[in-house]
Fold each of these.
Amino acid sequence: MAAKHQSVADTLADVTARRPVLEPVLRAFEPLLSAGDALAGKLAESVRDAGLRLPEIQWDRAQQGVSLLAGVSLAGAAGPMRQAAEELLPLLTTIEAVAPHAEALRAFFLRPVENPAEAPVDSNDSRDALAEAVVAGRSIESIASDGGVDPEVLAFVTGFVLSPVLHAMVANALPEDGEAPWDRDGAWQQGYCPVCGAFPTIAWLDKPMLDERNAYLAGGGGKKHLHCSQCGTGWKFLRGACPSCGKEASGTMEMLRETEAARGERLDWCTKCNTYCPTVDLREREAVPNLDALALGMMHLDMVAARKKLRPLRPSFWNMY
Amino acid sequence: MNTTRRSFLKLMGVSAVGLSLGQLGFDLAEAQAYASKLKIEGAKEVGSVCPFCSVCCQIIAYVRNGKLVSTEGDPDFPVNEGALCAKGAALFSMYTNPHRLTKPLYRAPFSDKWVEKDWDWTLNQIARRVKDTRDKDMVLKNEKGQTVNRVDTLFMMGTSHASNEECAVIHQAIRSLGMVQMDHQARV
C-alpha cells in the first residue's frame, strides 16, 4: 500500500506538536509554503504555454555532471513568475523585513508581461534574467539595482516566486509512472540537482519495497534520495558519499540525531568537508512528510549543527545563524 | 578579519540566499535555548560485509565511540539493496544479545539442570571425551583397505551465528580429528 503523503500544514502541525518552541516561525511560513506547494500544480499549463520545457537528458552530459538547465534560456519565465508573485507577494510582504519593500517588489514582479509576438527582438524581461541568474548561481545585484529592489530582499523573495515555476517545469517533464530520467541506469551521480544544479535542502531514506520475486532478500529500503527545494527534483544518491565534496569512503559520513523521539530526523554530515544535509528516514515514519516543510521544521538540528561548526549544504533563510 | 558563519556563507558565493530568520525579524533566542539542551547522539556510518554466508551482502554499521550501535543492509549494494535475511538482520545481536552465553554451562547425563563451569574444566572435559571416543572408534582403513582416517561416532553441532571465518576454522579443526559428521542448528 502506498504511503500517505502529508500536506505542508499537516507536516508543520506534526512538528509543532513535538516542538512547540518552533511554532512562531512555522506558523509564519505555513501559508507561504502551502501556497507555493499549490502553485506548482496551478502553473503547469502556463509554464507549458510559455514554452518552458526541460531538455531531454543526454547520457554523456549527465555523466559529466552537467545539469539539465545549465546554459538553457528561461525566456518566458516572466509570465508564470508574475502569476506566482500575485499569490505570494501578499503573504511575503507580511514579513516584517519585507514589508518596507512591498511597493518595489510589486513593481518588479507584477508589471505586465510583454506579448512575445509583439516584443522587440532584443527585449529581455528582467524577470527572465533573474530566473536565469538564480539557476546559474550568478549574482543578482545588477538586476536588483536596476529594479530598485534591495538585493537580499529580492533574493529571498525570488526563492519563493521562482520555485513553483521550476517545480511545474519538472512536474511536466516527469513520466506518470516509472523512474525519473536522471535516476535511470545511474545517469546522474552528483550531489547537486540534475535539473537546476542547486544543492539539496533535505535528503530522505526510502521505505522498503516489496519485490514479490524475492520478498525477503532485496529491497530493504534505506536508499538515499536528495531533494532540491528550488525545483522539487528528487534523485538517488549513495549513502556513503558526501553530496558536497563527493568523497566516498567508509566512515566518511556521520549522522547526528536526537537521542529520543527523533522520528527518523537526523543530520548526515561529512567528516572531510564539514557540510551537512538534514535527512529523514521514512522507515521510521508512517506518512511521508512534505519535504520543504520538514526542512524548515528541522531547524533545531540546524542550530545544533551551527554550534558544531558544520556548514549547511544548501544555505537557506532558516539555517544561517 | 572577523568572519561570522553568515559572512562565511556569503564568501562561499551564496549571497543569492537572501535574508536569514534573524534579519526577517524573528526572535530565535527561545529556539536556540531549546536546541542547546537537546540530547544529541552521533554515529559513524561504516560499510561492512555480512559474515554469515558466501552471498556477502553489504551492510552499513553504525559505530559510536568505537562500539557498534546498529546495523542495516546497504541499499546501494546491488545484491541485497538494503535487505538482509533473518540471520543478517540479527547480526547486531551477535555482539549485543543479552541472552548470549558468556560462560560454559554443563548439563550432566540424566540431569535437568545446567551448572556453570569454568573454561579449564570445560576444555579438559571436551578434550578427554573427544580423545577417548577417537581412540575407541577411529577407523583408519575401510573394508576395501582404503585409508579413510575417520571417526563416525563424533558429531559437530555448529551454530548458524558463526561467521564464515569462524566456520572455516571450526571445519579445519574437526576435520583434523577425523570427524565427518557436522551440521548447524538452523537445519535440524
Note: The CA atoms of residues 126 and 132 of chain B lie 10 Å apart.
Amino acid sequence: MEIADILIKFGLIIVIFLISLVVAMYSTYAERKVAAFFQDRVGPNRAGPWGILQPLADGGKMFLKEEIIPTNATPFLFIVGPSLAILTACIGSAVIPWGQNIVIAGKTIPLQVTDINVGILYIFGVVSLGVYGVMIGGWASNNKYSLLGAIRAASQNISYEISMGLSIIALLLVTHTLSLGEIAQQQHGWHWNVIYQPVGFILFLICAFAETNRTPFDLPECETELVGGYHTEYSSMKLGFYLFAEYINMFISSAVMVTLYWGSYNYPGMDYMNGLLGPTWGPLLGFAVMFFKVLLFIFFFMWVRWTIPRFRYDQLMDLGWKVLIPLAIANIVITACVITFL
Amino acid sequence: MESLSNKKKVLEVKPLNFWERAYLPAIAKGLSITMGHFFKKPVTIQYPEQKREFSENFRGQHSLKRDENGAERCTACGLCALSCPAEAITMTAAERQKDEEHLYREEKYAAVYEINMLRCIFCGLCEEACPKEAIYLDGDVVASDYLRKDFIYGKDKLVEAPLNQ
C-alpha cells in the first residue's frame, strides 16, 4: 500500500470518527429539543442562538466536575468500564459504507474504512463487546443498584442479540453476502431490503432499541427502581462517556439499519443524479442521502422514547424470548421456503 | 347489592384481540399522538423576557406611598406591624423637624421601616390596617437572593420614588 493510500484511509477514519462524535454530541441537544417539542415546551435555548452551544456547555461541565472514585470500588475496573463502553461504540462505524466510491483529483476513494467480508459479524462482535463496558462498570462500582443495573443490561443485551442475529439470517438469505459494502451495492436505486424483509426489519428495529438501552427497553437505567442503574456511582466525564456511548451506539445502529434495510446511500433516480453531478459530487449526494436517513432514524429513536413507557422486566424477557425469537425463526423459514421454491 | 345512585356501571373485560396483543397498532397510534404535539405551539412563557399578566388584585412587593406633594404618608402608627400575622414589619418612629415638612406628611414619621420578606405572607392585612393609605402591596414579585439578611427590606427599597424625578 502506498503512503498516499494510508494517509487517505487515516483521513477517512478521522472524518468518520469526528462525524460520529459530533452527531452524538448534537444528539444530546436534539434529544432535549425533541423531548421539549413533544411536550409542548421550548427546550434548551439559552446557550447560544436556539441553544446550539448547549452540548459544549454540558461537555465543559462534565470535564470540570470533580472525579470521584468510591472507596470500595475497584479503581482500575471502575475506569475500564466507561473506556470500554466508548471504545466499542466508536469502532463499530469502521465497516459501514457511507457512500459509493468517490473520485477526488483522479483518485478513487472508497467511502468505507474497510470492507471486510464478514462486516455484519464484525458489527455483532462489537455490539456484544459493548455490554462488557456496562457490566464491568456496574460491577466495579461495588453498589447493589449498579450491579442490578449491570445484570439487567447484560441479560437484556444477550437475550436481544439472539433475535437480532436471527432476524439478520433471513436478510442474509436474501443478500447472499455478509459484506456490508456489497449489501449496500445490491440495494441500488429503490431495491431496498426493507421491501423484501419487512418483518425482519421490524424485529431488527425492536432489537436495536433493546441493544442501545433506549426506551422502552431502558431498564438498566430505570431511575425509579435502580437510582441511576449501572452508572449510579459515576461522575464527571466517566459518566459523560457512558451517556455519550449510548448516543454513539444510537448513531451506529441507525447507520446499520439504514445500510442493511433502508438502501444505504441508494435512492431512486441515483443513476441520473450521478450522471448529472459527476463522480465527485454524485457520491457525496449519496452520502448526504445516507446521512439524512440516519438522522431520521435517530429522530425515530427519540420519538419512540417520548411516546412509549418502559416495559416491566418480565415483559421485556417475555417479548424477547417468547415473541421475537419465534417470529424471527418463522421469518427465516418462510424466507428460505420462498427463495427455494419460487 | 342494588346501586343507590344509579351510576353503577358494570365493566366488561374483554380478552385482547390479535392486533391489540401485537402492540404495534397501539404504538403507531401513540406515535401519531405525540407527533401531533410536536407541531403544537409551546406553552412556555420565557420568564425574564416575557411575563404572565398578574390578576388585578395580585399582591406583590410592598411600597410606601407618597402624597400629592411627594411627602411620605407613613406616620409610624404601627398598625400595620400590629395587624401583621407573620410579624414581618418593624419600624422606629421619629419626630418631624421644622425643615422636613416637604418630606413627611404628618408630624411623626418612620425613621426605620423594615419588612422581612421571608416572613411576609402577602396577606395584605397591613394594607387594610393602614389609616393613612401609606402601604400597598402593588409591586412585582419579590426577587430571590442569596442571604437571609438581604431579605429584610428597608425604606431604601420600599419607599416610592420621589415624584419629580
Note: The first helix of chain A runs from residue 3 to 38.
